Amino acid sequence: MEFIIHNDCFNKAISEVRKGISSKTPLSILMGIKIVVNKESVILIGSNSDIIIEKRIPLMIDGVNVVEIVETGSIVIPATYLSEIVKKLPSNIHIKTNEKQLITIQSDEIITHISGLNADDYPRLPDIQHNIFVNIGSNELVELFKQTMFAASSNEMKPVLTGVHMTFSDDKLVVVATNSHRLSKREICMKMGVKASIIVPRSSLQELAKLFADSDEIKLFISNNYIVFQSKDITLYSRLIDGVYPNTTGLIPKESKTRIRLNTNQFLKGIDRACLFASEWRNNNVNLTIVEGDKLKISSLASEIGKIEETQLMRSIEGEKELSISLDGSFLMDALKIINEEEVMIHFGGSMSPILIQPVGNPSFLQLISPVRTY
Amino acid sequence: MEFIIHNDCFNKAISEVRKGISSKTPLSILMGIKIVVNKESVILIGSNSDIIIEKRIPLMIDGVNVVEIVETGSIVIPATYLSEIVKKLPSNIHIKTNEKQLITIQSDEIITHISGLNADDYPRLPDIQHNIFVNIGSNELVELFKQTMFAASSNEMKPVLTGVHMTFSDDKLVVVATNSHRLSKREICMKMGVKASIIVPRSSLQELAKLFADSDEIKLFISNNYIVFQSKDITLYSRLIDGVYPNTTGLIPKESKTRIRLNTNQFLKGIDRACLFASEWRNNNVNLTIVEGDKLKISSLASEIGKIEETQLMRSIEGEKELSISLDGSFLMDALKIINEEEVMIHFGGSMSPILIQPVGNPSFLQLISPVRTY
């Protein structure tokens, strides 16, 4: 195997596939990047137990030659060393392997030798059927996951809740995540004519959001145990979480006693300030109270240290004008941060019922937060 | 005590004095910021066992009113809460205390109450005699310390070596730091007519470098147990380290077998690359060898993993043309990073003698690094 590659381009590819590589793995071959050189491209692969990232570098990018292939072949190179050395090399990089898996990396007067591993020992990529499932804009897909995945659980005791539930039906995709105390649900219209219900690890979707930030369109496949996202030059395979996701439809309240409309950003800033003392509590308690009929008082109290309170004018209020509820301030902040709309509508069902948060003008997105008990 | 202060200005002052506050201190009052309000200014004080930072905010800055004093007085406010809340307040900040040390912080519709502490319980500032010792440009002073303090020891077993030694004589100031394996020494001309020899904790000088980065001129005082640095609005008091600093003059070799001249930046980059495998060794071993009479080979080797080598053309060589030495690559990088000059001269006394590094054209600055044994 032998090729010469443009420095920047190789650096970028290495840093992309490294996102798939865990530094803690009992399989030493998975600490490496697999490099496959064929006549048309150089392919880099990095993987861990959850995801596989495959990056393809073609011979030319935007009319510029970036790769020159001397001899095809494949090898696995320790990811940390490859990444560190390539970052520090001044110009084009010449990589060559011999039959003993010894790799020579040269750039100008600088010569490095690293021991590689046999590419045949690297786990095989899962097979995917190439019947395209659906095409989707990357911005839309990334937003869909950003608005839901934060609500998933971090507790490994209930593995299904650590993932994000995706339900494909005839004309829409519904994405839900919950940790039992809060829930986020987002729908998008999508014609695909296939039904499926899968649970994807949150960690995979976090990598997706970073990897595909500047892609145009993404192809989405589902195979037996994998979901696959593919842009022009990157493919991300994520394993699925086994199990049955709880039915969350019944959790969403149909009625409310009080509905208030607020400026999203102003409310977020108020909650952020109230969290100052809230962090002294186990549940980051922040209190919301309706005062004088048209104002919302946001307050928190840590009796030993101090208290903070402010009142904000509501944009509108419907239903009962009496309300006092305690919520986890950090959940509220997470919920408000990922709303793009200027206004939010909050539905209250009483001090012991979950609140429902919806951006005004976007019925496809809703969030629930359960109240906390105060003692 | 009561005053109204401009948001940005208060924020900046809090973040400056917080640098002096340790989050781990058995004295809870030292976790607070002391605020003293007199008729002309608001003064903030933060301190730990090593340093005290005093910041003075005058009523006007650049012709703009930033403070309005309602009532003079003093209080100690928990630093973390004060800092967090002030960052998040939208406009001018109104601070008021009552006789029970309860503090009210108000900005627009936002009201916070925090319990304060009695300012009389805060440790007193050390007395300094106001006979000005010396005036010095802040850039010059900060550079002087940056070029030396990194070489001090991190090992608390020899406390004097964790500090930086400052020797004031009739016409110059000599600053030295060493950890027994490397040494950095810098001199500047300075007329002051007083002799003194003190050891200043490295941590204090690190804070100094941050605090006085954009000051013009600094006044420097020395009292019994303190060195004091004072700009227009900030005063930094640092305690001194007790003890006798070793005589380092004898360590500096007077003769050398080989002297080579190199491009500083190119040499630094080469050492950086060689450190790739050097980190596998206990001492970050990097080898320097003269080859072909006019080239320097930089190499490192971790037999299990790989090796890296490169050759650089030397700008000049004097003396013996045979040399092979092993050095701690991270020490070499530290030494080269703080040299501003384009070229360095390196003096070698043999493979077991320390090397001497001097910027070409700057005889006031020198560094020593001891070789490491290779097995």
From TrEMBL, chains A, B:
Residues 136-247 form the DNA polymerase III beta sliding clamp central domain. The keyword Transcription regulation does not apply. Coiled coil: none annotated. GO terms for molecular function: DNA-directed DNA polymerase activity. Its main location: cytoplasm. Pfam families: DNA_pol3_beta, DNA_pol3_beta_2, DNA_pol3_beta_3. Residues 1-126 form the DNA polymerase III beta sliding clamp N-terminal domain. InterPro entries: DNA_clamp_sf, DNA_polIII_beta, DNA_polIII_beta_C, DNA_polIII_beta_cen, DNA_polIII_beta_N. Gene3D superfamilies: 3.70.10.10, DNA Polymerase III, subunit A, domain 2. Confers DNA tethering and processivity to DNA polymerases and other proteins. Acts as a clamp, forming a ring around DNA (a reaction catalyzed by the clamp-loading complex) which diffuses in an ATP-independent manner freely and bidirectionally along dsDNA. Initially characterized for its ability to contact the catalytic subunit of DNA polymerase III (Pol III), a complex, multichain enzyme responsible for most of the replicative synthesis in bacteria; Pol III exhibits 3'-5' exonuclease proofreading activity. Forms a ring-shaped head-to-tail homodimer around DNA. Belongs to the beta sliding clamp family. This is Beta sliding clamp. It comes from Heyndrickxia vini.
